[in-house]
Design brief:
Layout: H1 7-21, H2 23-34, E1 45-49, H3 53-61, E2 65-70, H4 74-81, H5 83-88, E3 104-105, E4 114-115, H6 128-140, E5 146-149, H7 157-166, E6 171-173, H8 188-202, E7 209-213, H9 222-235, E8 238-242, E9 250-253, E10 256-259, H10 264-268, E11 273-278, H11 282-291, E12 295-297, H12 304-314, E13 318-320, H13 333-343, H14 351-371, H15 376-393
Parallel strand pairs: 1-2, 2-5, 5-6, 7-8, 7-11, 8-10, 11-12, 12-13
Antiparallel strand pairs: 3-4, 9-10
Helix pairs in contact: 9-13
Keywords: Transferase
GO molecular function: quercetin 3-O-glucosyltransferase activity; quercetin 7-O-glucosyltransferase activity
Family: Belongs to the UDP-glycosyltransferase family.
Length: about 400
């Protein structure tokens, strides 16, 4: 909380401000750069998040090469790009309360069938502002010079190939955008936290710890978090839980710790971590794949329901934490505990868990190969830079 308001409210307000109020200041900044005598300060290309369509307008007005950066899955881009097909079939805007949750959408080019219930929450009929903003952003991509996707080609080959065929511009898969693991942390509070949780992880058996984090933008309700904590304690699973509302490190019991912050990628790549309970945000999904750990899915909103569909049903590298009696019902601590035991294979005889871990290791290998020299993402990034330079020279 900050000043009586939840942190998510501030982030949402900042996000809306960047979307709606930054065009004029950005143009003023470009004007200032043009007045510099230094030729290296001349702006020759703009790379902007797809959700900032005003950046495309600025680039077009000034005859500056504009590149759109899509920061979630190609599948979601394809869904939004084909809202005309969704509308023709009575599926857009999406009405999640219509009793049609199990209807299959099987007509999006290059995309496997998906239930209406698994569509992105940003297309919800009840949130007109959100779906209009997403539609406007994706529509603006048509006016850019190319599109970058923060994925690797082998992860979603069919939908990526289809986008390359139907979009009248180059499309490059250049992800995942994985930062190098941090070796130094300037913030002393973070340093203390890091020492605490890394020492604890070092003392745990290999593949035994469940890492639990639900992101920094949307989160589960306080009541649901109580059930999650209760289930973790009952399950017998070793766990590291990130609780962003807390201030201090906390040893829950001999099997679990709670921290206010951690270096997520460093944790996921630690040999003692054997699973990731995630909200299914795209960055977290890619980091889990990079680390080769299976994913326990608990989506809250935005693109997360669609990502869960990819993780569990298409890639088969994760399991669901399901609500049984409707969307508003809490997942009880008893349900949580039984799911965690199965997911982490505490009894040692769960074939689904074993198969899931094998596939997660295979995805890790393909992900890292894509990032290596000569891999698909590395090659695409080189081609993108080369083509942008040639475009500007011409």
């Amino acid at each position: 909380m900050l000043g009586g308001l939840a942190l998510e409210q501030f982030k949402q307000r900042d996000f809306e401000a960047v979307q709606t109020k930054m065009e004029d200041p950005f143009e003023q900044f470009l004007d200032q750069l043009q007045q510099e005598d230094d030729p290296s300060m001349v702006v020759t290309a703009i790379l902007a998040d797809t959700l900032l369509p005003w950046a495309v307008s600025v680039g077009n007005r000034r005859n500056i090469t504009t590149v759109s950066l899509w920061t979630t899955s190609p599948s979601l881009f394809s869904i939004v790009y084909h809202t005309d097909l969704l509308a023709q079939n009575g599926h857009f805007p999406v009405d999640f309360s219509s009793g049609r949750a199990d209807e299959l959408i099987d007509y999006i080019p290059g995309f496997s069938p998906i239930r209406l219930a698994d569509m992105p929450a940003s297309l919800n009929r009840s949130n007109e502002q959100a779906y209009k903003a997403v539609f406007e952003a994706v529509s603006a991509v048509r006016k850019t010079q190319c599109l970058l996707l923060t994925t690797y080609h082998e992860l979603e080959p069919r939908v990526t190939k289809t986008l390359m065929e139907i979009l009248p511009k180059p499309v490059y898969t250049v992800g995942p955008s994985i930062p190098l693991p941090t070796t130094l942390v300037d913030d002393h509070a973070k340093m203390d936290t890091e020492d605490f949780y890394l020492e604890w992880l070092d003392s745990q058996p290999e593949n035994s710890v469940l890492y639990v984090s639900f992101g920094s933008f949307l989160s589960a309700s306080s009541d649901q978090m109580e059930e999650i904590l209760g289930g973790l304690r009952q399950s017998g699973v070793r766990y590291l839980l990130v609780s962003r509302g807390g201030k201090d490190n906390k040893m829950e019991n001999s099997r679990g710790i709670v921290v206010p912050w951690c270096d997520q990628l460093k944790v996921l790549c630690h040999p003692s971590v054997g699973g990731f309970w995630t909200h299914c945000g795209w960055n977290s999904t890619l980091e889990g794949i990079y680390a080769g750990v299976p994913l326990l899915t608990f989506p809250v909103g935005l693109d997360q329901f669609t990502n869960r569909k990819l993780i569990v049903d298409y890639w088969k590298i994760g399991m669901n934490v399901m609500k049984k009696d409707g969307a508003e019902r809490l997942v009880t601590r008893e349900d949580v505990a039984s799911t965690l035991r199965k997911f982490m294979n505490l009894d040692g005889d769960d074939e689904e868990s074993k198969d899931m871990r094998t596939r997660a290791s295979e995805f890790k290998k393909s992900c890292r190969q894509a990032l290596m020299e000569g891999g698909s993402s590395s090659t695409n990034l080189d081609n993108f830079i080369r083509n942008i330079l040639q475009y500007n020279l011409s």
